[in-house]
Design goal:
The protein is of the alpha/beta class. It is built from 14 helices and 12 strands. Helix 12 packs parallel to helix 14. Bound molecules: pyridoxal-5'-phosphate (PLP). The site of pyridoxal-5'-phosphate has 14 residues, from helix 4.
Length: 382
């Protein structure tokens, strides 16, 4: 078999030298402080059974979608689920994509056009950045969660009739766990006539009473141009949705290439999304349990005087900054030996010096597990 070109081999060598080489590991049975399964729904028997029931009721006993949604893949569950999602999320229309990554790529590559301008938070997810990189619009970053920085950048732009402005942020940041000042951003977007886009990947299923997300908790859904909600995290399944107006949906169906040129999600995946949202609609106790655990975690950090190491966050993501790839990997390995799975996040995924242990909290983590892992961490940091 031909080996790889020398430039690629050089990149791999550099990764190893920087202690940042990635490899695929088997999932562990350690105490989970690392998965995105915030509510434990990925292994819910109820959801599993409900999704099979939905498939049977709709006479959809097939394994694959058989094609793109514009060809043969648009099975009946898509309509049912998208209508349910639009209503649940209090918007006009919903369009399901195969993943959050696909949705961000497909949105940013097609919506902002040549001559337009995108302003994005400096810490937005790789999928947004990759979409922006494909887009023909110009893009500038603003300081993380900083309305003044955004305002500053916007006030320097000469607005012409032909120029559309887009502001992009996450509601809960995937690496820091902190939240965007969304109300400030809606005001700024109104002031400058910009379209606001919010990625709710880590807020879906977690914020607002039934898990509608932070946008609905703040009641600003009518001021947001587009939202991305993903299903692979708190909903415990797979896929993503873009929420917005009917015309935005029509536009994406016609021009968003990562939506058009791919095989649709199989019926089973869509049935699982629908089953999860039926449960969200009824109200599930896991959301409350997760928030109790977040409060307990924060209290324990204070008790152990660890606040200075942690980024302040009220979400399921609690990040402990431990500069240096080697150091953070060492501490994660020590925690593994004690039975806890907490993932080290290395540079270049985060900026050099901002390497961290990222604790993902879950509804199913016990208080005992939380206090135990933090006590061990405190000793390791001492
Ligand atoms: C903020 C954010 N947006 C989008 C995505 C991509 O979602 P998916 O995993 O469904 O591709 C992620 C996943 O890590 C994320 O954290």
């Amino acid at each position: 078999m031909p080996t790889i070109p020398s430039k690629l081999a050089e990149s791999l060598k550099k990764r190893k030298q920087e202690n940042a080489f990635r490899s695929l590991k088997k999932t562990s049975s350690l105490i989970d402080f690392s998965s995105n399964d915030y509510l434990g729904l990925a292994s819910s028997k109820k959801i599993y059974q409900q999704s099979h029931l939905i498939l049977k009721e709709n006479n959809l006993l097939q394994n694959g979608a058989t094609g793109s949604r514009l060809l043969s893949g648009n099975h009946i569950l898509y309509d049912l689920t998208e209508n349910f999602l639009a209503e649940f999320h209090q918007t006009e229309a919903a369009l399901i994509y195969n993943s959050g990554y696909d949705a961000n790529i497909g949105f940013f590559a097609s919506v902002p056009k040549r001559g337009d301008l995108i302003l994005y938070d400096e810490l937005v997810h790789a999928s947004i950045r990759d979409g922006i990189a494909i887009s023909r619009a110009k893009a500038y970053k603003f300081d993380h969660n900083n309305p003044e920085s955004l305002q500053n950048k916007l006030s320097k732009i000469e607005k012409t009739d032909d120029l559309e402005l887009y502001i992009v942020t996450e509601s809960v940041f995937s690496m820091d766990g902190d939240m965007a000042p969304l109300k400030d951003f809606t005001k700024i977007s109104e002031e400058f006539g910009a379209f606001l886009i919010v990625d709710e990947a880590h807020a879906t299923g977690i914020f607002s009473d039934k898990g509608e997300g932070l946008v609905q908790e703040l009641e600003i859904q009518d001021k947001v141009f587009a939202r991305l909600n993903t299903f692979g995290k708190a909903p415990g399944c797979h896929g993503a949705v873009i929420l917005g107006s009917k015309s935005l949906k029509d536009y994406l169906v016609n021009f968003s290439r990562s939506f058009i040129y791919t095989t649709a999600l199989p019926p089973h995946s869509v049935a699982t999304i629908l089953a999860v949202y039926h449960e969200f609609e009824k109200g599930i106790p896991q959301i409350q349990q997760l928030h109790q655990n977040i409060i307990f975690f924060r209290n324990q950090i204070e008790k152990l005087r660890l606040e200075k190491h942690f980024i302040f966050s009220k979400s399921g993501i609690q990040s402990c900054i431990i500069p240096g790839n080697e150091q953070v990997k060492n501490i994660a390995e020590n925690l593994r030996r004690e039975g806890f799975e907490v993932k080290p996040i290395l540079s270049p995924t985060v900026h050099k010096g901002r390497e961290r242990l990222r604790f993902c909290l879950h509804a199913f983590n016990s208080e005992e597990e939380i206090s135990q892992v933090l006590k061990i961490l405190a000793k390791l940091l001492a």
